Amino acid sequence: MDEQLVLAAYDQQIRRATDALGSGAIVELNVDVVRWVKTDNGGWSGVTWSQLDETTADDAIARQVEFYGGLGHRFEWKHHDHDVPADLSQRLVAAGFRREDHEALMVAEVDAIPHRAELPDGVTLRRITGEADVDLLIRVHESVFGTDHADLGRSLRTQLRTAPEVTELLVAMAGDRPVCSARIEFYPGTDFAGLWGGGTEPEWRGRGIYRALVAERARLAAERGFRFLQVDATADSRPILERLGFRMLATTTPHVWEPTVG
Hints:
This protein is of the alpha+beta class. It has helices at residues 3-15, 57-71, 88-94, 134-145, 150-162, 209-223, 238-244; strands at 26-30, 33-37, 46-50, 75-80, 98-99, 103-109, 123-128, 167-174, 177-186, 192-200, 228-233, 247-257.
């Protein structure tokens, strides 16, 4: 895998994409940024790509703050360490953004990843196809990550209703208890499928469930002819993914802006 060529393809095909994937969001190419705007139907608010330099960056940042602020939206600027200008992160912080934990942009060739999901005894894999069952996935997310995922739940229900072909939602079940959940998004017309979630309840970690969900999603991507899997990996999942054959192509850091209350 030529890492620089794959990274360039990722920037072009995924970060610059304007397909909302049935999430309910509105996606716009706005002069020099791609921005997502959540709606009542779901989605997410944030900037996924920018084309800036030292003379245009501050104005572009101010325009996005004004736009999202006018909507009363919290939003995320997905910064990557190869973005320009080189001090874009510092400019975002100076404009009132909160820099969050780094994540690793990791990519693997689909055919290089095991496709057999080997689950521990007593654990089964459940595919979520109905809107009512989305709560199983969200329950794990909120328990593991400790944050409110109501917006995600709304987006996934909209996606299942309007564009079910672009996603698969999976939950590992220990009896009637969901212990790990994950999803994959298939980006139409691209080489990439994206892996998201993968949260496992603490007492069930170290048993291969996360690896099994990666393998199952690799199998699903292979069936559909995708070439690469992409993950924004946390420090916890990065070592597992590296052992499976994923390579780190960049560091991505969420920069979050919150509207003023009151």
